[in-house]
Amino acid sequence: MATRRDKFTRGWWFILPGLLLMAAIVGTPLFMGLRYSLHDVFLYSFRNQTFVGLDNYRRAFADPLYINSLRLTGIFTVGCLVISIGLGILIAFLLNARQVKFRAMWMALFLIPFVMTPVVGGIAWRFFIWQQEVGVVNQVLTFFGGPAPYWLLDRETALWATIITNSWHLIPLATLVFYAALTTIPDELHEAGRVDGAGPFQALWYIVLPMLRPHILFVSIIIITSAFREFDMIWALTGGGPGRSTTVLSIFAYNRGIANQDMGMANTIAFTMFIIMAVVAWLYITLYRKTLGDKA
Known about the structure:
By secondary structure, the protein is mainly alpha-helical. It is 75% helix and 4% strand. It has twelve helices and two strands, in the order H-E-E-H-H-H-H-H-H-H-H-H-H-H.
């Protein structure tokens, strides 16, 4: 009995230092954020803290600006998820085709947006893609006789421009995972589909997508957590404007903490983001495990 218990605990002793270090690195700022969210704390007077309990949370949920930022964050996250997953699957499916030559070169090119820092990518898209006079998008539109709108200065288009730009940054990750998953699908399934008369997109719908379901869930949770907390890309593109049309929760927390110097409210907003993402991650992990169980 003692030997069996020793075998069970021996591995835990090896990973204990790493677990303690991770708990300190992750747990300390998390605890401090929770503590500050329960106090009135201001940027330049951290020593003068007044305990207010859940009053900051009540004020946040009663604030229409917070609700608007939460709505924008949801739209931004879902938009990035749909575009990244959809185009990621399509690009991976096309790269996996037998007719494609120089596959390694194409894969390397598609990975460039992912390795580029969000700030650099945002600045590049701001001045070279979305710019009203010399941007690529408006140059193409005017060539075909279309209008040349101010994409990042119009409330109606700014959010969608940021969604497209951030999706450009996330698509390579989805493409890489889906391409690796496609290489594990047996050729016999594709051969059987071709024998039954399935075309490329029928094979994608009836063969590839069912096999990719666990990988879609895996990539989805990564994209959701990344898009939900995105700050750099949006800040480089619009700074949260025009008006508040792209003020997602991360920028709203920054404005409250730095511009308004209300660190208590800023930590409250940040902690609500953590709670929301923890619930979403738990739901996705549960669904992911169920999917793996059904597949097994």
